Amino acid sequence: MQSAVRKVFTNHVAAIVHLIFSAQYFGTILFSTNYISKYSHKSTAKPTDNDGLFNKPVMKKENIRKVARIALGANLILAGISHLTFFRIEFRTQVPDWIPIKKDDTVVYSGVAEIALGSALVFTPEKYEKAIGRIAATFFTAVFPGNVAQYTNKRNAFGLNTNNKRLTRLFFQPVLVWWALKSTDNI
Predict the structure, then answer these.
(1) How many angstroms separate the CA atoms of 91 and 83, rounded?
(2) Which residues of the chain have pLDDT under 70?
(3) Residues 155-158: contacts with CB under 8 Å, at least 24 apart
(4) Contact 179, 141 (CB under 8 A)
(5) pLDDT at site 116
(6) DSSP assigned state of 169
(7) Residue 80: enclosing H or E segment and its boundaries?
(8) N or C: which end of the chain has fewer CB within 10 A?
(9) Residue 133 to residue 126: CA distance in whole angstroms
(10) Residue closest to 183 by CA, chosen among 140, 105, 122
(11) Are 146 and 95 spatial neighbours (Cβ–Cβ below 8 Å)?
(12) Secondary structure class of 94 (helix, strand, coil)
């Protein structure tokens, strides 16, 4: 049952990211001033590699950053929901034994924090983006001991059932920290 739920969850995340990138990419091409003015229905000219339209970046850096920020926020919201519902038991295995709070309470608190943080990344005004990005990076750093505990205690969860898979997972946490900082213009 959980593998079916995991597959649905993964497919939804992939679909959301795909839609965001597709809409951003095609919207930029189709509604570009250069494209409309040079290649409207009145013109018979065709775009070439030499006219500059295809030699320029399609998306502006700020749009890429915004899409990355929203995608990270959406993933955090979905991860937070999974902490509270269908992956709750698996998340308990990641809680280190030295945490002084009950494992289930830790999972619930971190799920609520992820939903709040993801919502902030998605909906915050530009004026607060940098602060939210630093908070997200700090959060990803703070939960890293859970990934280390899963590796050192050889706990199976989320398909990480070998030491190699658990070790590989550890290298993704710095990527999340970088993503939080980069998508909010902190680096």
Answers:
(1) 7
(2) 1-59
(3) 155/93, 155/94, 156/93, 157/90, 157/91, 157/93, 157/94, 158/6, 158/87, 158/90
(4) no
(5) 95
(6) H
(7) helix 61-84
(8) N
(9) 11
(10) 122
(11) yes
(12) coil
Vertex 42, ends 38 and 44: CA angle to 5°?
70
Report pTM. 0.66
Quote the pLDDT of residue 56. 58
Q: Give me the phi and psi of 160, to 5 degrees please.
A: -90, 80
Count Cβ atoms below 10 Å from residue 147 Cβ, excluding itself: 20
To which residue do tokens 């937070």 refer?
A: 80
Query: Model confidence over 33-55: pLDDT tens digits?
Result: 444 444 445 555 555 555 555 55
Output the six-digit token pair for 48: 């070439």
Residue from 180, 156, 179 nearest 169 by CA: 156
Interacting residues of 114 by C-beta distance below 8 A, sequence separation 6+:
76, 77, 79, 80, 83, 139
Residue 15: how many other CB atoms lie within 10 Å: 10
